[in-house]
Amino acid sequence: MDNCAPKKTCAESLRDFFTSAKFLIYMGHALSTWGDRMWNFAVAVFLVELYGNSLLLTAVYGLVVAGSVLLLGAIIGDWVDKNPRLKVAQTSLLAQNSCVILCGILLMLVFQFKEQLVELYNGWILTTCYILVISIANIANLASTAMAITIQRDWVVVVAGQDSSKLADMNATVRIIDQLTNILAPMLVGQIMAFGSHFVGCGFISGWNLCSMCVEYALLYKVYQKTPALAMKGGQKEQQQELKQLSLPTDVENSQSPEECSQPLMNETSAVAKPDSSEEQGCCYQVTEPLRTLKAGWVAYYNQNIFFAGMSLAFLYMTVLGFDCITTGYAYTQGLNGSVLSLLMGASAISGICGTVAFTWVRKKCGLIRTGFISGVAQLSCLMLCVISVFAPGSPFDLSVSPFKDLYTHLIGEKSLPEVDQSLATILGGNSTTPAPAEEMPPLQSYMSVALLFSGVIAARVGLWSFDLTVTQLIQENVIESERGVINGVQNSMNYLLDLLHFIMVILAPNPEAFGLLVIISVSFVAMGHMMYFRFAFKSLRSRLFLCCSPEQKVETVDSLSLPTTV
């Protein structure tokens, strides 16, 4: 019997883990991000295919998505704060998956009957379908933003409780899931579209989201049941207590509903003017309410003690040193093929996972704030390789060539595409009349520059992801419960704003000769971001030292230090 006890204990511990709220959140997040990554990858390909291998619809979609989150981020966060957690999660889940399913069905119809739609009303029906696809996909992205704020920024904090180490481990696990799905999900849907068709790809994504929605809905409800703290919100609890105190006399006298209880107060002379003024300004008040919510969100974000930490994270989005279409396009101009790029992307993912693992270890050894400092120094040190690559042999960097040359030639013809266009144009076959790649490839005698560039980018991912997790947990721990949604919504808006600026920067200077200048500007913005964090860290650590050096704390410190000697 004694020998069986350890096995039973191990089995029980495994059962408890797989049925815990933490594991259920991991499962739900994995399903959600897998569907998101498949859809985000596929929708860009679908839009390019629909518009005759042009990037116009993809560019419009990216602009609409970024602009919507930029403008509505604070409003979405405020909605998350003002509503019950389960309602927000379920509504966001249903809205997101329903929009993706609807969009997938609409795309299937367009792919199936595109030739007929082109002939109807001079193509206006097809144009309407394009508008509907972009609009519905944008709604799905907004719902996904609300879902991310709810689960990753609020539910995770509540499930972790007051345990900072548990919160750090959960954040790291969630980020590892993000990185793995970011690689595997596009590979799966890409193979389905390659061996099947775009029609089959749309159907697969729609079916996946339908099944995933049902499973995620059940997982969310299980997590909600296993975590009673999710049923209470700090801000709502305070409001309910205040309302109970105010409505107590009227409830005792009339025992009526809240709306009926407020009617006797309206008969008083002091209260008559308020409803009249609100009725006169009711229309304007409701119309301007989103603007006031937006302003209040940004003001609240500015007044946070973690303001500079959040700004530092946003500044890291103003960079071309990432594995996106811009860096991929530049790599193609430097002679790297798809096979090499896929290996580099895999190395980047491994580096990011190492960063998440390093975050948990360094945080335990040095503390959260110092972890951000160490991560920032590590990232900046690795990015120095990118700066060196600008002046290394094989670099096309040439200040004598105007950065705006290709912008003007692109307005006349397609002699030179922007960096955003070059990657997809190369994959899709591009334009056979484009002479730029053929002219640039022969002079490339050394790969030292591009090797240093990608070595710096890949190595910097360790510090980047560790720093991202640091700022994320700082926001989770320092923002009060009633403002988590709106503060994280504004943070998403700031991230999208700097991301938009970096795309605008590339559009203004798209030629490969100017990419070195973009690298230097990117590293400068990263440095400014980390300087903001260093200011936040110095101020936070100094305030903690000041508290520790206060007279009361000195007495406690002396007593605690003298305790071992007296014993």
TrEMBL record:
Q: Looking at the keywords, is Ion transport present?
A: yes
Q: Which gene encodes it?
A: slc40a1
Query: What Gene Ontology terms describe where this protein resides (cellular component)?
Result: basolateral plasma membrane
- Keyword terms: Cell membrane, Ion transport, Iron, Membrane, Metal-binding, Transmembrane, Transmembrane helix, Transport
Q: Which CDD domains match?
A: MFS_SLC40A1_like (cd17480)
GO MF term (any one) = metal ion binding
Please state what the protein is called. Solute carrier family 40 member
- Organism listed in the record: Betta splendens (Siamese fighting fish)
- What are the TM regions of this chain, as residue ranges? 55-80, 92-111, 123-143, 306-332, 338-361, 373-392, 444-464, 514-534
